[in-house]
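Structure in, sequence out. Go:
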């Protein structure tokens, strides 16, 4: 049992013993079974945060100190606690699945590339298809057969200015 987890367990035991509560009494007054309390108080498993709060409530103890102990013990129990830089072996109380080394950087890049390339290909097809549809469905800039070009229309909103006179005096037709 780790020292931080051991401190939490010892403090929980003191609270229970000080209140004279049996495991059966804890089970009756909380949402946790007698066997669960046995595991928590003997250090076999990490108690849930709510179990610590419930015990504090039962013995009329403010839960601040106990929850602080729980936070420290839980971070060590789950492996979230920062390991010392000089440590050569993982702590004995950390579950084996948390002791695995991260994959090599090349493997992560290959995995990302394996997922990224198909996604980029799909994106290209979707965007290209949408562009092709818009090109085909929207009216083009070239005049269709049988249409009169805009310059030969009898009325235009643009002023019809001519030559050098347009610079000095604007004459509109």
């Amino acid at each position: 049992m780790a020292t931080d987890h051991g401190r939490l367990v010892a403090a929980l035991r003191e609270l229970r013993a000080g209140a004279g509560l049996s495991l059966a009494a804890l089970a009756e007054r909380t949402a946790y079974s007698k066997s669960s309390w046995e595991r928590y108080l003997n250090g076999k498993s990490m108690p849930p945060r709510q179990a610590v709060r419930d015990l504090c409530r039962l013995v009329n103890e403010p839960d601040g100190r106990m929850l602080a102990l729980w936070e420290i013990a839980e971070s060590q129990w789950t492996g979230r606690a920062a390991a010392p830089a000089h440590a050569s072996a993982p702590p004995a109380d950390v579950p084996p699945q948390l002791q695995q080394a991260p994959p090599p950087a090349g493997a992560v890049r290959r995995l990302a590339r394996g997922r990224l390339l198909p996604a980029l290909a799909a994106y290209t097809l979707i965007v290209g298809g949408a562009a092709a549809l818009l090109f085909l469905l929207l009216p083009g800039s070239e005049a269709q057969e049988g249409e009169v070009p805009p310059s030969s229309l009898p009325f235009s909103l643009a002023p019809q200015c001519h030559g050098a006179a347009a610079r000095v005096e604007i004459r509109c037709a």
